[in-house]
Each structure stands twice: as structure tokens, then as C-alpha cells.
Amino acid sequence: MTQRELAMLAGAGSAALLAAALTFQALGYAPCELCLLQRWPHVVAALSGLAIAVVGWRRSLVALGLLAALAAFGLASYHAGVELKLWAGPQHCSGGVSGLANMSTQDLVTALQAAPVVRCDQIAWSLFGISMAGWNAICSAMLAGIWAACLRRRNRVGGLA
To answer: Quick one: which of 69, 44, 42, 57 has its CA closest to 8?
Structure first.
């Protein structure tokens, strides 16, 4: 497999993860704020792969794809940790309403009504005990490995573009 094909494969992998996320959303699994945030790096990686398909292998595009896959891995890992209660997530999507002791009943009702319905700290779906965020982290790590291999192989072949 050429470096160009390898980069296109990595970009297609990100596009497939985006398609899976949209499929789950169409099936009624509403995304939380962290779920939506995790999609953006995959958009960048998929577009990097598409650009490589159009203009050919470019070191800058491969590096961009690698950085995007690493960002997707980082965001998905953070989200999985929030779901597993390893660390706190953002207050506005992890359910916390701060300052309860100082709130009037009306303020509390207003705060609860303004709270988002989809929580970042609850697992909506899992397979083999791994949440969607967990699977995204695993797949993003593999895609980052493909992008890195594409970059390393090109360096070993000796061509800079």
C-alpha cells in the first residue's frame, strides 16, 4: 500500500466514525456536548484524507491528519473518563447545579429547566462494556497510528513533499 493510499485509508476511517455517530444519532441516541466536540477532529482528518486523494501525498496534510486523530483520541479519552467517573466533566453537561444552598426555589427551578437533557457523564450505549466514547478513543488511536505510519514510511522512503 502506498503512502497516499494509507493516508486516504486513515481519512476514510474518520469519515466512517462520523457516519457511525450520525447513524446512532438517527437511531435516537442524542449526542451530548462532548460527543459533538469529538466529531470536529474527525472532520479535519477526513478532509485531510480527501485532500490527499485529490492533490497527492503532502507532509503537511498527513501531519494535520495525525494531529486531528490525536485530538480525537484525547477528547474521546477524556469523555470516557467522565463517563467512568474517573474525573469530573464540564458542569453544564455533567449534571451539577452549583450554589444550591444560596438558591431560591424559583432560581433552582430555572436552573434545572435550563440544564441540558443529554448528560456527558452517562453512558447511553456500550458494546462489550465499552461506551461509544471508549470505542471512539480506541478507533482514534488506531487511526493516529495509521497516520503516523504514513508519515514514517514516507520519511524512510526518502521523499519529502
So the answer is: 57
Q: Model-level pTM?
A: 0.79
For residue 126, list its beta bridge partners: 131
Query: What cell was used for 31?
Result: 449526542
Q: Which three cell numbers stand for residue 143?
A: 487511526
Cα gap 157→79, rounded to integer Å:
38
In the chain, pLDDT over 70 holds for what percent of residues? Answer: 83
Write the CA distances from 24 to 18, 118, 135, 149, 154, integer angstroms. 10, 14, 13, 30, 36
**pLDDT class for 101, splitting at 50, 70, 90?**
low
Q: What is the DSSP letter of 1?
A: -
Per-residue CA distances from 65 to 44, 99, 106, 146, 153 (Å): 7, 42, 49, 10, 15
